């Protein structure tokens, strides 16, 4: 051996332990070379872990090796664990080096590879560091489990809590405002069962609990908020331990919420399916007995078929899909008359642009404010760290949490920007789709569908063929280029009855107040659904790019 490259390595983790320092290793290698009369071609000093070979200095060394593929070369290090702590990658790298005529040698664990049996020895040297690593990480997770069994919370604090180190050096979590207060509010709201959980989630978001829908559900299911700590054992068994941390809610409230979540999930999924399939229910009467028809699934050979039928024993029965389609087709034959387009445009602008835009802009404002708060928290933390009040571990935990929060907030902000852009874009799509006013009926929410059926109910239904007519209100017949009311409130709607009357009159349609009200109700309903598909497209693209 005449020449050699020297490779010394220490990971940040190892620096805490003794005998691993870079100068120590370098010193030993240089002495060895001097003693054996080996010329040193270069020293590569690495401070990376050896889990794989994705290390900057190693890459440098390797590209140096590749430059002289035919020349015989040597790499020296102190021990095999300096070279690799993963046996699989180690052998792969040894193979690559062999191709470039390079041999490896650990001066403290010398192996004469010309003796075939020594290959086993080398394997042992390579396998040991990996076993050591695995053992260490197992010890860490055992440590975490032990801490949990003692009621402490060693992991990253869940939202609403903050990691802190107590005077005795032990780690725990404490409530973090304003999130903690909002979480309490959310648990109480869910327990009352007056609102949908998604609605509560939205309000919690507005209040400043910025998290996704799925995370919100995880919060509601996490027993840590009522003081319990979940310990997972290797056997996949879970154990619940009373925690030492301050609770946000009572145990009974927690279990109340669990039962609400469980029943709401089951019920709403089923109920929404049924309501969506039988959206004409309540508007169909049995021609024999005059009772309202109901809807249900009847079992066929292969699958279940939905039917509207009479509950009174009359033989009236019709396929729900057929009748739904007939209704929808009939609806889609209606075309908004040209004289009403100006009014509809105004409503579209109000509903889809002003109202929605305002709501998105408001959300964006809240998100931006949260981002600023996050930045402020971090800089406060930094000051406390410098002042020696905050420990480095706590600061790092804070920083990590901060980064995650900021990342999520920025994602949300981008999402809102996209929605705002979608509004602006779709605003440029002109008159063409406006005339075919019911084109998007199938995309309406179930409650909007029912609302629409209520405004334009089906009549003269033939329960054999499904043919039907629409009961067009007298007012509607004025705005559709086919044929003919209830009163509703117009909260938050800016196109007033008076305005509508003026616009319609200008275009040659004379309507009464009542007629105008129902026309506005219908147009607002359509307007609400008008831009949905564009938004959905953007949402889909975003979801794909996120995954
Ligand atoms: Zn009947």
Any overview of this molecule?
Strand 5 (161-165) and strand 6 (171-175) form a beta hairpin. The chain has four domains: 3-144, Resolvase, N-terminal catalytic domain (Rossmann fold), CATH 3.40.50; 161-275, Hect, E3 ligase catalytic domain fold (Alpha-Beta Complex), CATH 3.90.1750; 278-332, no CATH class; 338-546, no CATH class. It has helices at residues 12-15, 22-36, 56-67, 80-83, 87-99, 118-149, 179-192, 197-207, 213-221, 251-277, 320-332, 341-386, 392-427, 432-435, 446-455, 474-479, 497-506, 513-530, 532-546, and strands spanning 3-9, 39-46, 73-77, 102-106, 161-165, 171-175, 228-232, 238-242, 294-299, 304-309, 317-319, 458-459, 469-470. It contains 19 helices and 13 strands. The protein has a four-stranded parallel beta sheet, with helices on both faces. Mean pLDDT is 83; it is low at 483-491 and 543-547. It is an alpha/beta fold and 547 residues long. The protein binds zinc ion. Residues 286, 288-289, 291, 310, 312, 314, 316 line the site of zinc ion (ZN). Zinc ion is lined by residues 286, 288-289, 291, 310, 312, 314, 316.
């Amino acid at each position: 051996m005449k020449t050699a490259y020297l490779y010394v390595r220490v990971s940040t983790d190892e620096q805490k332990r003794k005998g691993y320092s870079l100068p120590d290793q370098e010193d030993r290698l240089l002495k060895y070379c001097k003693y054996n009369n080996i010329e040193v071609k270069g020293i590569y000093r690495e401070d990376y872990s050896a889990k794989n070979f994705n290390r900057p200095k190693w890459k440098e060394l390797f590209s140096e090796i590749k430059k002289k593929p035919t020349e015989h070369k040597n790499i020296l290090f102190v021990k095999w664990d300096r070279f690799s702590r993963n046996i699989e990658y180690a052998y792969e790298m040894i193979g690559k080096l062999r191709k470039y005529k390079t041999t490896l040698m650990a001066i403290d664990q010398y192996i004469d590879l010309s003796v075939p049996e020594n290959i086993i020895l080398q394997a042992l040297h390579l396998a040991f560091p990996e076993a050591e690593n695995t053992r260490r990480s197992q010890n860490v997770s055992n440590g975490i489990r032990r801490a949990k069994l003692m009621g402490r919370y060693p992991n990253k604090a869940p939202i609403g809590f903050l990691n802190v180190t107590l005077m005795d050096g032990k780690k725990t979590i404490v409530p973090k405002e304003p999130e903690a207060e909002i979480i309490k509010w959310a648990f109480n709201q869910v327990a009352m069962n007056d609102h949908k959980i998604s609605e509560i989630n939205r309000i919690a978001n507005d209040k400043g609990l910025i998290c996704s829908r799925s995370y919100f559900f995880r919060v509601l299911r996490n027993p840590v908020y009522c003081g319990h700590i979940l310990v997972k054992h290797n056997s996949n068994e879970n154990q619940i331990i009373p925690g030492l941390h301050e609770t946000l809610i009572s145990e009974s409230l927690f279990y109340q919420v669990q039962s609400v979540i469980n029943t709401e999930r089951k019920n709403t999924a089923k109920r929404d399916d049924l309501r969506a399939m039988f959206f004409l229910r309540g508007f169909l009467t049995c021609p024999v007995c005059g009772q309202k028809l109901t809807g249900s699934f009847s079992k066929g050979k292969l699958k279940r078929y939905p039917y509207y039928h009479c509950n009174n024993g009359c033989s009236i029965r019709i396929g729900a899909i057929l009748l739904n389609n007939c209704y929808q087709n009939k609806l889609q034959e209606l075309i908004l008359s040209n004289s009403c387009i100006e009014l509809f445009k105004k409503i579209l602008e109000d509903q889809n642009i002003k109202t929605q835009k305002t709501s998105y802009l408001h959300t964006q404002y809240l998100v931006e404010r949260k981002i600023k708060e996050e930045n402020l928290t971090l800089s406060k933390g930094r000051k406390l760290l410098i002042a020696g009040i905050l420990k480095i571990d706590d600061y790092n935990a804070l920083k990590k949490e901060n980064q995650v929060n900021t990342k999520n907030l920025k994602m949300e902000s981008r999402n809102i920007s996209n929605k705002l852009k979608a509004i602006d874009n779709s605003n440029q799509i002109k008159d063409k789709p406006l005339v075919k006013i019911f084109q998007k009926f199938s995309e309406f929410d179930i409650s909007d569908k029912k609302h629409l059926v209520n405004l334009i109910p089906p009549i003269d239904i033939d329960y054999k063929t499904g043919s039907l007519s629409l009961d067009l209100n007298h007012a509607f017949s004025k705005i559709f280029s086919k044929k003919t009311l209830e009163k509703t409130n117009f909260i938050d709607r800016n196109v007033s009855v008076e305005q509508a009357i003026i616009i319609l009159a200008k275009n040659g349609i004379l309507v009464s107040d009542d007629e105008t009200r129902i026309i506005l109700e219908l147009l607002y309903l359509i307007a609400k659904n008008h831009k949905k598909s564009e938004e959905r497209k953007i949402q889909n693209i975003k979801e794909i790019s996120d995954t």
